[in-house]
Write a sequence for this structure.
């Protein structure tokens, strides 16, 4: 009789199970994912309780209304099912019968309600006690039956429906704080009457009040789940607002998610920032500046939602697949399980609202559907990739446009690629962005999902894509002849680029292990980072700081390999690896280079004469060891890490594409103290995209690696005329989630001879490594960031940074500069490095 689930037995089992889940919840960290999953397990199981009432009350309704227990009628069939095998399906069946009675006996209404809840005629007939008949309409009893079945529906829900608000409130009432009762009373009284927003706000306020009390309390947990579901339901009904009115729903839906999900710190920061947007939170069309702020917050929320989705999917997909196979579930159902859990979570309601308002915000901010990172007019065949990293090592034999959903900024552009379009947002100053501009490759972000999907659907076809000065991208399909005509020009350009670098020679070791700043400009022993710093001495305002510096010169790594027997096995291995890669007989490039870097870190021996000389050079340069203690072991690890980055996959692919031999690449290492940065900046003294003669700058909280490295989100970006640097136009507000910090330390910066070759733009290919590990800290722009809070302060800082750019460009004879620096916590400006902008390098720079 395993199929027979009598209500009394069922409800008792449910009560034991939900009691056990509540007890487990009591013993878990409330912020853990384990707690999240245990809480949500309760949504899959009815509360239990007095299940016998299901069996008794249906008979009472039939007897009071003189409905006979006659075989072959709908009521008797349902009664037999309820008597022997009640299930959660009985809730929508009861609702469908009430709707049928209210319609005056319309069978279509009955079946539509069942269908809306996933119940078909076949399913009803499949029960052990099947329901085959059409429902009966009792005209003389209809109004009475509606009332009685309404009460009966509450009984069914109390046993089967985990998150039914009315019964949840009734059962949790004795545990409710008084403050919550007012909010909940308003929701119960106004459901179906008031507009959704005040009901949603009341629900999340009630949840906030009961949150400290729910751990392990079954009735409050069920009430919390019911309130969560109410907010989602209200949001889904009202998110279709035709204007920015839907923006009013962001705060309550986001707060609802914060109260539900584990590890909610990032979501809470998003919520705090969103609530500072005065106009938008009231559904009023914002100013351009507030729309830019809002767009940045929405981007950050989107990333946080992605993290929640990935966390849920990652934890559920594999168990769902294993259980699905064991239980004989169709594979498609197992595959969709994790996705449907995400769609059923409160995160979906937030995403739904954001999707409605994003186009309106972008319009108010004058952002359009496209963001052009590197402009170009191109013709190419479309290929689709989930991530640019997947195709960066390929060599296309015809001009190709890659439509890639992910572009982190760290990738290399594949050989033969003339354009990359993405729905991701690589930083304007990331490696791939600089590389695209230098190579004349189109790189553009599409903010319209439908438009990007249209381009993806053109995979295999040939497109002509053009960029406009107004920041738009247009495209059209063209014939194969247009592609063929474009192929000749592209091949000629690639061949010319390879010829330019083919005869480069590696610099000789100068015979010294350290070069001091006074000697940076003598000879060709150090890279452009070091030389440009030396050129800036005496050229900047007195209040601007240049850090003390010393450099381990070119070919020191190669000299260590050759000059010490302890390193000959490593030397030979590295040579064999490069030879096998060159001949195409190696394993995958990634495997070979990863192994090479690991061997350098593990096996490279730095002789005493080198380590002693480098330590002496550091002290002579006036560089202070952290806490006054020499830590050569840590310093040598950082030094070796920079040398090992010669075998970085991205750098290797980039050099090979340009025709630069790997043996030519030599690594000088610039040593400086790490600056305790409150803000970091990068300045371009000509706009990197439009080439306009104006300052373009970006700023972030903390160290500058979040600007040029693989850290998602936008920075503060702004433009200003060179002759009026206080006239600031904000292009974007920050959406980066983290800042980088480090204790007092030294940093070892790559300064290779391959980084600043004219026409190559290899900056950022190789690693700069601090002696101490950097830490990521979340950024709360609202309470901890003066640049965000104080407009006057922000404009003053931005103007100072822009003016510095003008001065540095003058110091380099008017050559447009790419400048990196930071602002210390006591307000001092430090210039870390300056180089000619990609595409503006004077001949003979290196």
């Amino acid at each position: 009789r395993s199929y027979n689930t009598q209500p009394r037995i069922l409800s008792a089992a449910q009560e034991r199970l939900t009691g056990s889940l509540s007890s487990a919840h009591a013993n878990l960290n409330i912020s853990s994912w384990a707690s999240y999953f245990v809480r949500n397990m309760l949504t899959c199981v009815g509360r239990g309780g007095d299940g016998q009432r299901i069996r008794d009350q249906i008979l009472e309704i039939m007897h009071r209304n003189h409905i006979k227990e006659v075989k072959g009628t709908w009521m008797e069939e349902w009664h037999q099912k309820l008597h022997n095998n009640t299930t959660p399906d009985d809730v929508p069946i009861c609702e469908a019968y009430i709707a049928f009675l209210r319609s005056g006996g319309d069978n279509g209404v009955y079946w539509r309600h069942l269908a809306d809840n996933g119940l078909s005629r076949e399913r009803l007939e499949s029960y052990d006690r099947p329901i085959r008949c059409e429902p009966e309409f009792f005209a003389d009893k209809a109004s009475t039956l509606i009332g009685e079945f309404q009460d009966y529906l509450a009984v069914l829900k109390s046993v089967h429906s985990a998150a039914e608000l009315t019964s949840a409130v009734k059962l949790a009432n004795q545990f409710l704080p008084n403050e919550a009762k007012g909010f909940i009373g308003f929701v119960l009284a106004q459901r179906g009457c008031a507009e959704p927003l005040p009901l949603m706000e009341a629900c999340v306020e009630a949840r906030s009040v009961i949150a400290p009390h729910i751990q392990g309390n079954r009735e409050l947990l069920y009430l919390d789940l019911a309130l969560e579901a109410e907010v989602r339901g209200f949001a889904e009904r009202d998110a279709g607002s035709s204007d920015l009115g839907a923006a009013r729903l962001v705060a309550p839906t986001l707060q609802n998610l914060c109260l539900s999900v584990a590890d909610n710190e990032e979501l809470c920061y998003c919520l705090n920032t969103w609530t500072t947007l005065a106009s938008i939170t009231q559904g009023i069309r914002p100013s351009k500046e507030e729309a830019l702020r809002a767009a940045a917050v929405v981007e950050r929320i989107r990333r946080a939602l992605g993290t929640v989705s990935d966390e849920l999917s990652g934890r559920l997909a594999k168990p769902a697949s294993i259980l699905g196979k064991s239980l004989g579930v169709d594979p498609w159902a197992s595959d969709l399980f994790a996705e449907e859990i995400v769609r059923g979570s409160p995160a979906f309601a937030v995403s739904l609202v954001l999707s409605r308002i994003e186009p309106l915000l972008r319009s108010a901010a004058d952002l359009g559907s496209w963001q052009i990172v590197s402009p170009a007019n191109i013709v190419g065949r479309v290929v689709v990739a989930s991530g640019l990293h997947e195709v960066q090592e390929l060599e296309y034999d015809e001009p190709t446009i890659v439509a890639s959903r992910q572009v982190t900024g760290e990738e290399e552009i594949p050989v033969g690629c003339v354009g990359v379009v993405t729905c991701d947002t690589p930083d304007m100053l990331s490696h791939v962005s600089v590389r695209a501009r230098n190579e004349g490759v189109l790189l553009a972000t599409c903010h319209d999902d439908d438009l990007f999907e249209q381009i993806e659907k053109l995979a295999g076809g040939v497109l002509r894509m053009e960029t406009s000065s107004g920041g738009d991208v247009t495209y059209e399909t063209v014939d194969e002849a247009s592609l063929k005509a474009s192929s000749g020009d592209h091949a000629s350009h690639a061949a010319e680029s390879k010829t330019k670098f083919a005869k480069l020679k590696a610099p000789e070791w100068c015979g010294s292990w350290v070069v001091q700043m006074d000697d940076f400009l003598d000879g060709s022993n150090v890279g452009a980072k070091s030389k440009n710093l030396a050129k800036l001495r005496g050229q900047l305002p007195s209040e601007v700081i240049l850090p003390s510096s010393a450099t381990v010169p070119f070919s020191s790594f190669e000299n260590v390999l050759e000059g010490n027997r302890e390193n000959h096995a490593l030397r030979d291995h590295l040579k064999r690896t490069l030879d096998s890669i060159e001949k195409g007989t190696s394993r995958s490039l990634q495997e070979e280079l990863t192994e090479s870097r690991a061997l350098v870190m593990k096996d490279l021996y730095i002789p005493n004469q080198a380590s002693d000389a480098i330590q002496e050079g550091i002290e002579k340069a006036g560089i202070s060891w952290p806490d006054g203690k020499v830590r050569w072991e840590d310093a040598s690890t950082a030094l070796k890490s920079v040398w090992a980055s010669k075998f970085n996959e991205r750098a290797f692919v980039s050099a090979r594409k340009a025709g630069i031999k790997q043996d030519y690449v030599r690594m000088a290492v610039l040593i400086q103290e790490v600056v305790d940065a409150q803000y970091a900046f990068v300045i371009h003294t000509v706009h990197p995209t439009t080439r306009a003669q104006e300052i373009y700058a970006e700023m972030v909280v903390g160290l500058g690696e979040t600007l040029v490295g693989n850290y998602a989100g936008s920075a503060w970006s702004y433009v200003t005329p060179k002759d009026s640097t206080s006239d600031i136009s904000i292009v974007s507000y920050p959406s980066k989630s983290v800042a980088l910090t480090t204790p007092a330390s030294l940093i070892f910066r790559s300064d290779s001879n391959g980084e600043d070759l004219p026409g190559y733009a290899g900056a950022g290919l190789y690693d700069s490594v601090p002696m101490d590990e950097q830490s990521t800290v979340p950024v709360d722009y609202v309470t901890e960031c003066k640049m965000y809070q104080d407009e006057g302060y922000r404009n003053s800082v931005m103007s100072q940074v822009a003016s510095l750019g003008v001065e540095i460009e003058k110091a380099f004879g008017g050559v447009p500069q790419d400048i990196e620096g930071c602002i210390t916590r006591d307000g001092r400006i430090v210039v870390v490095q300056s180089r000619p902008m990609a595409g503006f390098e004077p001949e003979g720079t290196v």
About this structure: The CA atoms of residues 44 and 162 lie 7 Å apart. The radius of gyration is 33 Å.
